[in-house]
TrEMBL record:
CDD domains: RHOD. Pfam families: Rhodanese. This is Rhodanese domain-containing protein. SMART domains: RHOD. Residues 76-176 form the Rhodanese domain. It comes from Adiantum capillus-veneris. It comes from the Eukaryota.
Length: 178
């Protein structure tokens, strides 16, 4: 995969401006080694985001893999589990099929407050080596939750970019709580 990305990003033959980049650091440090087969559509939709991230001299490689909903859907079909970190009310109004809801934040008055037992709650449902796709409503809470999980030594964490709203816009299957 690194060879394909290096060829697309660095050959000068690609016509897309996002692919004309000179990597500021070795590609292996910025592109996760995927353990699953990706369709060419999923790979193509994921690559421009990463290529653009490489073009910024100040960008840092995040230890969290953020993937578009199409890739998240493929991961879930391949056996990954979905951790929905939205509030219970958001979850009840609609969620990804088979999702486990553990709020990263609780609604308190007009705002949100951090769930101080988040890691403890996650430990009751997931193992440290489980392959977990983390999602929220629009992407910010899941990113924070994913960073906290990685810091707590969870090794199979993937963040779903765009959250549940992007999932719905893509027409992916959903369900509501009964």
């Amino acid at each position: 995969m690194e060879t394909l990305i290096r060829k697309l990003c660095c050959s000068g033959r690609a016509n897309h401006p996002a692919l004309h980049v000179r990597p500021p650091r070795p590609l292996a440090s910025c592109f996760p080694v995927f353990k699953w087969p990706l369709s060419s559509l999923a790979l193509a939709s994921h690559m421009p985001t990463r290529a653009r991230a490489l073009s910024s001299e100040s960008s840092q490689c995040s230890p969290i893999k953020a993937v578009p909903v199409q890739v998240a859907h493929e991961l879930l079909n391949a056996g990954h589990r979905y951790l929905d970190v939205r509030t219970a009310e958001e979850f009840a109004s609609g969620h990804i099929e088979g999702a486990v809801n553990i709020p990263y934040m609780y609604k308190v008055g007009p705002g949100l407050t951090k769930n101080l037992k988040f890691l403890e709650d996650v430990e009751t449902k997931f193992g440290k080596d489980d392959e977990i796709v983390v999602g929220c409503q629009m992407g910010k809470r899941s990113q924070m939750a994913a960073e906290e999980l990685v810091a707590a030594a969870y090794t199979g964490i993937t963040d779903m970019a765009g959250g549940y709203m992007a999932w719905m816009r893509s027409g992916m299957p959903t369900e509501t709580s009964v």
